[in-house]
Structure prediction request, 436 residues.
Amino acid sequence: MATKKIKVPIINYSSPRGRKYLQKITTSRITSNKKTTSLVEKILDDVRDNGESALFRYTEKFDKVKLTARKMKITEEEISLSAKQIRPELKTAIDETAKRIDAYHRKQLREGFEFQSGEGTLGQIIRPLSRVGVYIPGGHTIYPSSVLMDIIPAQIAGVKEIVAVTPPRELDPGVAYALKLLNITEIYRIGGAQAIAALAYGTKTIKPVEKIVGPGNPFVATAKKLVYGVVDIDSVAGPSEVAIIADDSVDPTWVALDLLAQGEHGSGDELAICVCEDKGFADKIAAALISEIEASPVKKVFQALPEHAITIFVASSRDESIALINDFAPEHLQIMTRSYRKDLNKIQNAAAIFLGPYTPVALGDYFIGTNHVLPTGGAARYASPLGVDSFTKRISVAEVTPEGLDLAAPFVSVFARAENFVHHALSVERREGNSK
Prediction:
């Protein structure tokens, strides 16, 4: 069989074709598989209506494991035994990363407020969620880093109960160590859409949660999307994506490596784009990409990607490059230009931004403390990274005085009667005059 020849598209963004090309490859990120959705709906309904009998049935069907209520819970002893098998260098990496995630996210803590208005005392209080579920993948994707990213902000927010679920496989030592480090003791060996159903609706053994976070396969992602409203979720996560603005102040090989770092996730739907303002520099990046792919130990992963998965755009100006980024609203944005601080000020839509030639996305994925649970698929236009706020709720508080009610009542009455809510009006009108 002939080896697939690697091609890197270089697109003139200023042309009508360039804008249509960007629109085509970005809208392809948002997909909905009707067959998957139909199956997941059936699983969710079954677990909701039939509890653990359905949960165990799907676990046996999909994971080939027979569970009982007693066997479902992973014991602290099992966690400790697995955690002891961790490689020393990974243990150190987890310890150091946890410190940085903690330090970064503690800066996000905020307090409520209270002030005096003409009507009385108004304020807002912040309360943590009570119980949160964390999904931990157990197949080809083992992410101890995501365990830290999902749990530490919730603990800082003050969440009292954190429950984890993971498919019934041998517990990965890195995951086990991270769970032990964070003192998570309620862990169940269940996975897939059925695990999401158990967290959302509850079973005889598992209490329902208020929010579900954590990565998973398309069945897990679809299940999270469908239970949203019963519970909150972190996001409807899609394939990984990165956009890079670069100029010739940076080594084109570094740009190539950062593009490939996103392309190697392996789903086939990843998207890595670079935009620059010089065709000659674009050619150098393309050549570096081909060279790195040819030498890569995971060359087959890149050969399996669709041609548009790694694309270089050439814009006519920096403002046009930035306009492209704001239209794309990427999960990750790297700005590797001479003027990256100035360019940053014009960015409106990106989930996480990495500045300068020495800040590749991999640092944020694993170590420096910023959260790697990020909105994808253009959701950075309106959504934010996972953080402490993700695990809290704001509650408004009002205490109005008799005099304040007399002041407000005429305005409330006008609004209420204009909207045909007579008893809204009466509830304030009948209280008027008590301040005298």
